[in-house]
Amino acid sequence: MQIEAGRLTADDVKARREADEPHSPVVRFGLDKPLRLDAGVDLRGLQIAYQTYGEPNADRTNAILVCHALTGDQHVANVNPVTGKPGWWETLVGPGKPVDTERFFVICANVLGGCMGTTGPSSTNPATGHPYGLEMPVVTIRDMVNAQAMLLDHLGIERLFCVAGGSMGGMQVLQWAASYPERVFCALPIATAARHSAQNIAFHEVGRQAVMADPDWCGGAYLAQGLAPHRGLAVARMAAHITYMSDQGLHRKFGRRLQDRVLPTFGFDADFQVESYLRHQGESFVQRFDANSYLYVTRAMDYFDLAADYDGVLANAFRASKTRFCVASFTSDWLFTSADSRAIVHALNASGASVSYAEIESDKGHDAFLLEEPVLFDIARGFLDSAARALGLPPARPR
Amino acid sequence: MVHRDRTLDESAVRSQGGRVDLVVVAEMVAPGSRVLDVGSGDGDLLDLLATTRGCDARGIELSREGVNAGVARGLAIVQGDADVDLAHYPDDSFDYVILSQTLQATRRPRWVLEQMLRIGRHAVVSFPNFGHWRSRIDLLIDGRMPVTDNMPYAWYETPNIHFCTIRDFVALVETVDARMERAVALDSSGHRVRVNMPWWVWNLLGEQAVFLLSRK
User: Fold this and answer.
1) Would you give the DSSP letter of residue B216?
2) Pairing relationship of beta strands A35-36 and A42-43 according to DSSP bridges
3) What are φ and ψ of residue B180, in 5° steps?
4) Among the CATH numbers 3.30.160.160, 3.30.70.270, 1.10.1740.110, 1.10.510.10, which is that of A201-298?
5) How far is A377 from chain B (nearest CA, A)?
């Protein structure tokens, strides 16, 4: 298998249409309601694509905002309109699930800089009528959160019952708790960190360089040329995907087994199952994700260092916070390690906030937060149930 | 076996085979206070403190199973190692810091006790008394390390690496210059040893001891 170079495919066109005309609800803010970005510029004509599940209660106090990770989107618990696959967190979110859509009003928005309907580099720039490309200002995790706050204002949600998310979603959870403490009753940051590590910035840089080294990237203006840097983006995804798994997990899943052959070919075809798997991951990713979005969103993660905004003391970010936190990490996650989560927990302890922390045994690496992990579900359910009791929300319907 | 007694009635707990020591600990904690339980297991004491004393009760627990069970019950428990993590808590952040049946399993009991008195205005410590007459007989007559209901492990697999007697603990309290506010010893049937007895009697008859300490 070889990743195809060159022209935009029908899938590309379908995926790119999502950028301006998503399948989900979308709110378009007028040019008079710009979003002030950390980069120091105003983003005008902001649009936010989002999905909701369940119903708000009479007081509108039962809303849970789910924040997605680097390559996720707003389709948490419905069939994805681009891939046709189930929602990315259907294990956790749905009727009777820990994030129970019969009880809670669940909201998820595509992040700022994304490519599924919220303003990002593949969106049409209202000032030019063409896709932004690199004219899109660089965005941060805080910009993403501020955009989500505009969405909540639009939806009439004054205060969230909970903000939940893993990985980059967890960064948004922490930023929410720091920026809008009075709007967050409880917070569930999973497999995340309060700052992106040097190692993780390094991995992101490899991915970006792979994209930018692809001649079809065209200095970021590939859409105007009818091209897409599929080969570079696929390599970026392949490299990143390794970091989402663990050594043991890869070994358990693939070992050194060969792909559809009994002997090696003494060539550079995908002899090993693990190679074939990675190529498949790369190939399917490029059909749904915009290369420039990959640059922007990875950059936002790189810039994330919550303590830096609070005199270098993370505890100051949560000073006097009344938010209840539940932090979780996975033993084999070497991308967002338990040490990263412990640093968050120590800061929360130092600030006097109420915090639970569970380190969950798993060999599935960073990806564990998206997979079937019953211990995570039990913890999330117990945490949300007790927080709901404390807030006076009615108990779950007995099953 | 997990006891989930949510009562401070000692005789009721005793007759049901529950943990009387937890009741004694809970009684020493003022209602409505902020409490940190170090070595909180699966959260029975936290639950008892929250439901019967209205406390803002939080825990630290080393075992993942304990943490998972407790958090799934909706309790605020942090997975961590008391021997290390207590250093991260600020001064005076709790009214009470509790160490229930955990002192003997810490690597640095003195350091842990000092940290408790730094983090909390009060410390409550309960532990099995190695000076209990039955332990002494095991050692003296049989020449074997004692194994009892409170200390159920054989010497080669016990997590309890720092056993002490009631008198040893009283000496440690003096060493760290803490004030002893209250002390209770429970005999092997879970009854309190009479208060007006001298230390050596407590040390002989008390199978478990619970101390309420404060900073001088």
Assistant:
1) -
2) antiparallel
3) -90, 115
4) 1.10.1740.110
5) 9
For each of chain A's 399 residues, which pLDDT tens digit applies?
456 666 777 777 777 789 999 999 999 999 999 999 999 999 999 999 999 999 999 999 999 999 999 999 999 999 999 999 999 999 999 999 999 999 999 999 999 999 999 999 999 999 999 999 999 999 999 999 999 999 999 999 999 999 999 999 999 999 999 999 999 999 999 999 999 999 999 999 999 999 999 999 999 999 999 999 999 999 999 999 999 999 999 999 999 999 999 999 999 999 999 999 999 999 999 999 999 999 999 999 999 999 999 999 999 999 999 999 999 999 999 999 999 999 999 999 999 899 999 999 999 999 999 999 999 999 999 999 999 999 999 988 776
Determine whether the interchain pair A361/B64 forms a contact, defined as Cβ–Cβ distance below 8 Å. yes
> From the CA of A327, how many Å to the nearest CA of chain B?
9
Residue ranges matching CATH 1.10.1740.110 in chain A: 201-298
- Return the CATH fold of A19-195+308-391: Rossmann fold (3.40.50)
Q: Inspect the interface and report whether the beta carbons of B76 and A324 lie closer than 8 Å.
A: yes
User: CATH 3.40.50.1820 region(s) of chain A?
Assistant: 19-195+308-391
Residues of A with CB under 8 A from a CB of B: 324, 326, 342, 345-346, 349-350, 352, 354-361, 375, 378-379, 381-383, 385-387, 389
Cα–Cα distance measured from residue A164 to residue B71, given in angstroms and rounded to the nearest whole number: 16
Q: Rounded to 10 degrees, what is the CA torsion of B74, B75, B80, B83?
A: -170
Catalytic residue among A333, A338, A340, A362: A333
Chains A–B, number of C-beta pairs less than 8 Å apart: 64
Inter-axis angle of helices B109-119 and B166-175, to 10 degrees? 60
Q: What is the ipTM of this complex?
A: 0.87
The CATH architecture assigned to B10-215 reads 3-Layer(aba) Sandwich (3.40)
Task: Verify whether the Cβ–Cβ distance A379 to B72 is below 8 Å.
Answer: yes
What is the rounded distance in angstroms from the CA atom of residue B115 to the CA atom of residue B137?
35
CB spacing of B71 vs A354 below 8 angstroms: no
Q: What DSSP letter does each residue of B74-125 carry, written as one string?
A: T-EEEE--HHHHGGGSPTT-EEEEEEES-GGG-S-HHHHHHHHHHHEEEEEE
Q: How far is A379 from chain B (nearest CA, A)?
A: 4
Q: Is residue B29 within 8 Å of B35, Cβ to Cβ?
A: yes
Q: Which residue of B lies nearest to A357 if distances are taken between CA atoms?
A: B78
